Amino acid sequence: MIPNPKFTEQLSIHFTKKEVLMKQYKMLTLTLSVALIASCVFLARAAEQDKTSTEFREQFVKNFQRIGLNTTLGDAMMLRILVESAKAKRGIEVGSATGFGAVNMGIAFERNAGQLYTLEIDPKMVKTCRENIQKVGLEKTVTCFEGDALKTLATLEGEFDFVFLDALKRDYLKYLKLIEPKLKPGSVVVADNVIRSADQMKDFLDYVQTSPDYDTVIIRASMEKNDGMSVSYKIK
């Protein structure tokens, strides 16, 4: 049977159109895929920019679900100001809790192009602290270490110029003695709860208040807990 030439021509045109439509479909699919990827990248970058913005971070700090172990709002701001005004580059926090102090100090260390190492013994607190640090995009500036500070402090290498003590009060002097060889002149050492827990850290307070190597003052940046912090400047 001889094929009808007209039918053959129509069939050929049909398949040609089908091929064209398939090519157009593939191009459209590719274009949409590229657009979708670009959109996802844009949204990811926008989210990253948002969580590192001043407005987002200040709102995060304001709404932070603080617990009893966290510093007060006033103390946290004082810590941030001390870090930034001292132009501190490498800091240690002993006692992270859920990261409220670390977030506030981390903002200042980021502005100084510095680094903060925060130490916490409780695994659950460590997890929460790390999550809060990530929520404000400070994971490149703040590192949370898990473990007993009396052991982990020895693993930190290099010099440091800022210290915040807020863990076991009776061990404050032990913490300082482990850190002291790594402190350069001009360093700032801050200790929390020095009024209400003064008896538990008497050896520490006697040391920083009488040593010729430090200038020390006790301040109250907040009346929320009816407590205060000692601020010591390392002279030599």
What does this 3D model show about the protein?
The structure is a single chain. This protein has 236 residues and is of the alpha/beta class. The chain folds into two domains: 1-51; 54-234, Vaccinia Virus protein VP39 (Rossmann fold, 3-Layer(aba) Sandwich). 49% of the residues lie in helices and 19% in strands. The chain is built from eight helices and seven strands. It has a seven-stranded mixed beta sheet, sandwiched between helices. Helix 3 (73-85) runs parallel beside helix 4 (100-111) and helix 7 packs across helix 8. The longest helix is centred in the N-terminal third of the chain and has 47 residues, at 5-51. The N and C termini lie far apart (108 Å).
Give the SSE order as H and E letters. Answer: HHHEHEHEHEHEHEE
| CATH-defined architecture of the largest domain | 3-Layer(aba) Sandwich
Largest sheet: 7 strands, mixed
Name of the CATH first level of the largest domain: Alpha Beta
**Over the alpha carbons, how many angstroms does the gyration radius reach?**
29 Å
**Large-scale geometry:** elongated
Give the end-to-end Cα distance, rounded to a whole number of Å: 108 Å
The CATH topology of the largest domain is given as Rossmann fold
Helix-strand category = alpha/beta
CATH superfamily of the largest domain: Vaccinia Virus protein VP39
